[in-house]
Amino acid sequence: xxxxxVIFSGMQPSGSLTLGNYLGALKNWxxxxxxxxxxxxxxxxxxxxxxxxxxxxxxxTLEVLANYIAxxxxxxxxxxxxxxxxxxxxxLSWILNCFSYYGELxxxxxxxxxxxxxxxxxxxxGLFTYPVLMAADILLYQADLVPVGEDQRQHLEIxxxxxxxxxxxxxxxxxxxxxxxxKDVAKVMSLQDPNSKxxxxxxxxxxxxxxxxxxxxxxxxxxxxVTDSIGVVNYTDDQPGIxxxxxxxxxxxxxxxxxxxxxxxxxxxxxxxxxVAEVVIAELEPIQEKIDYLLKNKDYLExxxxxxxQKAEAAAHKTLRKVKRKVGFIPR
Length: 332
Ligand code: AQP
What we know:
- The protein folds into two domains: 6-186 and 298-327, Rossmann fold, CATH 3.40.50.620; 205-292, Tyrosyl-Transfer RNA Synthetase (Orthogonal Bundle), CATH 1.10.240.10.
- It is 54% helix and 6% strand.
- It has helices at 19-32, 44-47, 54-71, 88-97, 102-106, 109-116, 125-128, 130-140, 153-169, 215-223, 240-253, 257-263, 269-295, 298-327; strands at 6-11, 37-42, 78-82, 145-146, 178-179.
- The strands form two sheets. It has a three-stranded parallel β-sheet with strand order 1-2-3. Strands 4-5 form a two-stranded parallel ribbon.
- The structure holds adenosine-5'-tetraphosphate.
- Residues 11-12, 14, 18, 20-21, 24-25, 43, 148-149, 151-152, 187-188, 197-201 line the site of adenosine-5'-tetraphosphate.
């Protein structure tokens, strides 16, 4: 039997998951399960690259795991685990740090964006080397494919560069992964600034929809979403707020943007906002019921992440042993 291709991806528990995380990545992961050997991780080590309250980190880590399962990831079919439970991620990350360059890391858009939001004295080395830890996450599992949103394409490129550099310096060690970006999902943008992506760590809670937001909150956030003064529903870059609402609507209903524009001819923005809220609420309702159930059953979540870490650790160790030998570390 042909060996299944390997998939790895993860999300940060930097908050609870947003509609952007769901439409941009998680929904795609669910569609792919079964066809691949899949590892999905809650990347808590990435989440501490910016200041984070320990009690919030603990809460968000379990929430993200619950969100994964509630959205449809099946722990019987995929390996679900918490990054810090598998120390090989930190170990490989250090080694890869020594094969990554200051120049290439300085060009990362996410670093530039996130460091702009921090006090310049509070930008950590961890934030700077974030893409190297991400490379370690992926390369440890010899992943063939990494399903992420469009916003992560640049980090995937650096992962490929690091893998190729290491393979060229020593010998074939890492599978060079391909990004797996669903074509029909543009970035989901902030509801308050439609030129920036929707992010769970945004300081303005009206900017994002959380998978856990209750219907009234979802309606309110869409109602307040920033649009423009043109007043006609069009799918164009000149109307980024409306374009974002159409993208969300389209992704959930599978209707083409042009069809949606036709449906809203002569109707105002208020109607579009109401309808987008309705389809989002309907999509999230069954997921929310499961999230509530899972968060009341922490023992079950614990069983999942313990079993997941054991499986992940076995695969990760194989790669790490090889890497250590190649760089010249003496085995114990
Ligand atoms: N707005 C988005 N549109 C489409 N895809 C998105 N993703 C995130 N936001 C959007 C995808 O979700 C996955 C999770 O990535 P992450 O949690 O590791 O970090 P991130 O990309 O930095 O996500 P956030 O929500 O913006 O977190 P914070 O606020 O902490 O930075 C990735 O596959 C990403 O592409």
